[in-house]
Amino acid sequence: MLSDASNFIKEVDGVFLFILGISLALLILITILMILFVIKFNRKRNPRPKNIKGNTTLEIIWTVIPTILVVGMFYYGWYGYKKMTAAPKDAFEINVNGKMWAWEFIYPNGKKTDTLVVPIQKPIKLNLKSLDVNHSLYIPAFRIKKDVIPNKDNSLWFIANEAGVYDIACAEYCGLRHSYMYSKLYAIHQNEFDKWYNSKTDTTLTKK
Ligand SMILES: [Cu+2]
Fold it and tell me: Which of 12, 147, 151, 163 has the fewest beta carbons closer than 10 A?
């Protein structure tokens, strides 16, 4: 939770914790009230139930508070979502092909790989294409996921903050070997990346 692997961690984990916190608070509140009411208003204690009329104050409270909470959830979700959909103009673009059952990454200079290699501290835009059925590119550590749909140009962007090796998965069931449709993302320093990018052969990087 406290990782800083990509530029979206703060927003996504923030919304997650915000919603989780509200859900937990409501769960506890409602459970406690339910138990109290079961004890206080059981038949033994209230052989003849009172005729209860409406309570406007209560109705206003339980309408206004949930509305504020839901609008808050929407606001934080929308704020993060908007940031995720707008890739910076200077992003380094890599084309991604999803196919049964592998990922293929094609760089501007024509280099093709089965693992994704990117420089850190730089916006990267992935142009997603499917060559057959629906897939979904998912990089859990970066909190990003996007459907890869035939005849639809989806894209995705991120900044890798820390050098490291991260999992890439397919998150949309796409057939028999869907569960094997994994790859790796190597986030490396710019000078290392330049060396790798300009070399003819795939260096040991992708062969680990
Ligand atoms: Cu797939």
Answer: 151
